[in-house]
Amino acid sequence: MPNVKHDDTHDAKTNDTFDAQNNEDVNGVPGAKAAPAAASGEKPDAASNGNSNVASNDNSNANHNAKTNAKPERDCVLCGCCLELCPLFAATNREELSPRAKALLSGPSKFTAATLDDDAVAELASLCLACGKCEKLCPQGVSVPRLVARLRAEHPDFRQWLWKQWVTKLQPCWSLAAKGAGLIPEALTPANLGLALKGLRGLRPDNGLRPWLTVTRFPVEEFRQQYGERPVVLFDGCVGSGPRKAWGQAARFLLRGLGANLAEAGFSCCGSTLGVAGLPEDQLTARRANVEAWRKADRPLLVTYCATCRKGLADYAAPGAGAGIFANSDEEALWAASVTPLSGLLSGAAGKVGRGVPTVVGWHRPCHAVLPGDPGDADCKLMSSLLGARLRTPAKANCCGFGGIMQLSAPELSTQVGQACWNGLDGALGFTAAPEVVSAYVLTGCSGCVMQLTATAPAGHGQHAQVGHWLEIVKTD
Amino acid sequence: MTTALAPALTPTHLRFLEQLFPGEGLVTKPEEMAVFGADSSRRSALPWAVVRPRTEDQIVELLKWAEAERMPLVPRLRGTGMSGGAVPAFGGVVVSTLWLNRVLDINAGDFCAEVEPGVVTAEFQALTQKQKLFYPPDPASLKISTLGGNVSTCAGGMRAVKYGVTRDYVLGVRAVLPGGKICDAGGRTHKNVVGLDLTRLFVGSCGTLGIFTKLTLKLLPLPESSATVLAAFPSLVAALEGAKGVFRAGILPTAMEFMDATACRGIAQIKDVPWPDNTQAVLLLKVDGSASALAEDIIRLEQALSRANPSCLLKGLGPKEEEPLWEIRRLVSPAAFQLGPDKLGEDVAVPRGKTVEAVEGFQAIGAENNTHVACYGHLGDGNIHVNIIYDAADEGQRTRAKACKEAVFRLTLSLGGTISGEHGTGITKAPYVSWQLSETERELMAGIKQVFDPSGILNPGKGWV
Q1: For residue range A174-185, what is the model confidence (pLDDT) as tens digits?
Q2: Which residue(s) pair with B247 in the sheet?
Q3: Residue A35 with chain B: CB contacts under 8 Å
Q4: Among A117, A307, A426, B372, which residue's Cβ finds the most Cβ atoms within 10 Å?
Q5: Count: domains in chain B
């Protein structure tokens, strides 16, 4: 059984999560380990019941860990803290889809009250959006997305293959795919591909938002003081380098406005959704290629405009990212310090809105917008300073339900979560209550969110929803 | 119990459930059912099947059938209980009522609300606050647990000293009984003395009497603000003297929490603490009310505590200033693990005047057994969390921990206390119930159970066996 020592980072995490949940009564929650005997210590009772079929979850995980060759994680203690924010559980109220169920099925101390089928466990546990909300709440530091990625890797199937084609092969011609998707009649679309194709269709270049925001002041001096002449490269990601080249154009326009010493590098996919899909080797290949491209460009500042790409890149320097990505720890630290969101560089910019500006604009916060150590959602902060009261944010930051491979493996669940997300946006914007005054106009900062929100947008009300990356509203002429 | 319960689910049974609960309403794959067989007690057993009603009618049909078939049913909400109350340890079909999750009514005129059992407590509280109304029960799990679960366990919390526990806010319960009859206990009035108080029987009954479909809850006006005082003392007696002084001064705090020396030592290992090294106990008090009255109350509170000579006294007015003080309190539980990798978390309660004796006794039990025993909790209402910290990998420590637990129970009972103030007995404390309740009381309870559930199909083996 895992006996993991507390380290400083871990304690900090425990404290944070306990802030959030005020949970002193949870027996054994934040322990250094979950022990079989923690349950059996409280078990004079079960033993005394002859006909009881109750089982304590013992940690017969030695084999499991040997098999996955992974560092043993601290174990789930079933406290349920993760139930607070899981978007899949919130949208469905189906406990078998909760993070706790996944940890119970696939964590080090697996469910032992019955013999379960490994493939069926993998199939069920892989119904995860990988949004990471549960991970932030867990007092034990259990990462369900990581558990799920591991399970998906151990149980490969055709959907992973399909996702890989999607991300790696189709990428250069996504524009075409998006156009093609529009040409395929709904009736002919394979059932499981419907949602993903709908998302792609939403990315057609002519589906973009019309720009209406003119940047009138760039924080040139601030940028110069912080970065001087250091070269800057932009990480476009799959969507920005494919179907929505306009994002990259707007981003480069803004960087030039800042006076950045703009360079270029030949990046590939960030690898984020490949890893989640259970394709660790492909992820590692992508990671190595990107670091090599960065190295060749003389290790410049690495600017991102997609929240998930940024997380994907930041994760290169996370523990367990994979061997041989970096030459040494200095390079790794430099990478970690170089990955920067574009919006953060623009803090202090001023702008004015022009014709075509909607009355109110919704902001969808991507699950990956705020990384550990971030003071907040930099994209949202920039937009709210530029748009003021026009920008409306739902009280609860709901997940859009994209979840990468989930679009292919369980489109119906992905859709259900997307609908719950739109309900939250409707609550903040009120487009259902007053369709003549308010339109369903939503900005965000992640390419996955743009695809998913487009694919799940509510129909009707005599209008169609408009969804885009915030870069789309920026005038570049 | 006269007839034996069904020993398993037959194909005929399954066909019935398939018809009554179409689609995702019925869960039968073991992998999907696993989580429905576990709860925060970390016990688990595999359910025979899981059903998810969307309507009360389905529950009525289910209970007609279950009664006829002697089919054990285990009601469940989010499974965050600490004592295994939701674990189908003796087999049966788990009934998840999470899909009954509407807030039906929040009425500022009547000061009451009607909800379905699956509503999350914190989400309900947020809704009431929008209308300047207040639902006080605040179990630690309030962000993740449901009102239905809180009612079936009679969940407590820190505000109990002033506002009471869940029981004090349940005006009515609508429940389906075995055989399919519907019982409407209580109602929307704040007073009601017609007949026996069936509502109270349902509260804390751990799903053994009926399956809830609607709860009527009492609301209060929302207090404007709050203030907090933290005081450290060089001895446990001085701290408890300080607490007494507060009540003597005529102040009824919203919360009155304490932490003993072991708990304080644990916290000091993970955080810079404001108290001196020789601290033996820390008190944390909250008062609520109007902003203008609070400014005065906090001065009175300070004066009352000062008579017991605290070695350090900090105060905060309004949530922003209060937060860092309460953060310390919330660290107690994680901090306990600084002293050892495993713990037994007991939640005994004693008559309020016996708290000193109890805490000193628990500490002595720890010393005798050479085991860390940290005491903290709800001093104001005599509910003490006793954390027995040990290493489960060491058999000697495990044995000593169990000896401590039983000694704690014995001392608690000798002081006129109860072995569980909040968590309930479920399966983990079931063997100890007879230490507290005599045969007469247990027979009466069994008789009541028999009236509601003559075949014993509802959550068998739980509560007061």
Answers
A1: 544 444 444 444
A2: none
A3: 341-342, 392-393
A4: A307
A5: 3
From chain A, the residues in CB contact with B74 under 8 A are none
> Domains in chain A: how many in total?
2
Looking at residue B341, what DSSP letter applies? S
Is B431 touching A (CB cutoff 8 A)? yes
Query: What is the tens place of the pLDDT at every residue in B186-205?
Result: 999 999 999 999 999 999 99
Burial class (CB in 10 A: 0-12, 13-18, 19+), A27: buried
Domain identity same for B242 and B254: yes
User: Residue A141: its chain B contacts at CB < 8 A?
Assistant: none
Q: Is A317 on the interface with B (CB under 8 A)?
A: no
With an 8 Å Cβ cutoff, are A30 and B143 in contact? Answer: no
User: Does residue A286 lie within any of the structural domains?
Assistant: no
pLDDT tens readout for residues A8-45: 333 333 333 323 333 333 333 333 333 333 333 333 33
Q: A55 and A86, same structural domain?
A: yes
**Residue B214 is assigned to a structural domain of this protein:** yes
A79 or B404: whose pLDDT is higher? B404
The reply to whether A246 touches chain B by the CB within 8 Å rule is: no
Q: Are strands A213-217 and A350-353 parallel, antiparallel or unpaired?
A: antiparallel
- The CATH number of whichever domain residue B386 belongs to comes to 3.30.70.2740
Same domain flag for A354 and A237? yes
Q: Do β-strands B182-186 and B170-176 pair in parallel, antiparallel, or remain unpaired?
A: antiparallel
Residues A265 and A406 in one domain: yes
* Beta strands B255-260 and A361-363, pairing class: unpaired
H or E, element range at B73 = strand B73-76
**How far apart are the CA of B92 and the nearest CA of chain A, in angstroms?**
11
Considering Cα of B373, then B379, then B381, then B382, what sign does the dihedral take?
positive
Structural domain harbouring A188: 170-270+300-306+340-477
CB-nearest to A96 from B35, B118, B144 is B35
Is the Cβ of B143 closer than 8 Å to some Cβ of chain A?
A: yes
pLDDT recorded at residue A68: 33
Does B183 lie in the same domain as B133? yes
The answer, yes or no, to whether residue A168 has pLDDT greater than 60, is yes
- Best of A54, A76, A416 to mutate (most B CBs within 10 Å, chain B): A54
Domain assignment of residue A1, yes or no: no
> Does residue A320 lie within any of the structural domains?
no
pLDDT, tens only, B163-183: 999 999 999 999 999 999 999
Q: Is residue B47 part of a domain?
A: no
Residues 6+ apart with CB under 8 A from B139: A25, B121, B145, B150, B155, B156, B157, B166, B422
Terminal CA-CA length for chain A: 62
Domain match, A120 and A243 both: no
End-to-end CA distance of chain B: 12
ipTM for the predicted complex:
0.92
Please indicate whether, in this complex, the C-beta atoms of B31 and A120 are within 8 angstroms of each other: yes
Nearest to B459 by CA among B55, B17, B77: B77
10 Å CB burial of residue B442 (0-12, 13-18, 19+) is middle
Nearest to A35 by CA among A14, A4, A7: A4
For residues A114 and A214, membership in a common domain is answered with no
b/e burial code for range A105-116 (CB count within 10 A of at least 16 → b): bbbbbbbbbbeb
Is B439 near chain A, with CB under 8 Å? Answer: no
A317: in domain: no
Range of the domain at B277: 225-333
φ/ψ region of A428 (left if φ > 0, alpha if ψ in -120 to 50, else beta) reads: alpha
Amino acid at position B380, single letter: G
Distance CA A188, CA A195 (A): 13
Chain B residues with CB-CB distance to A112 below 8 A: 44
A:255-274 residues touching chain B, CB 8 A cutoff? none
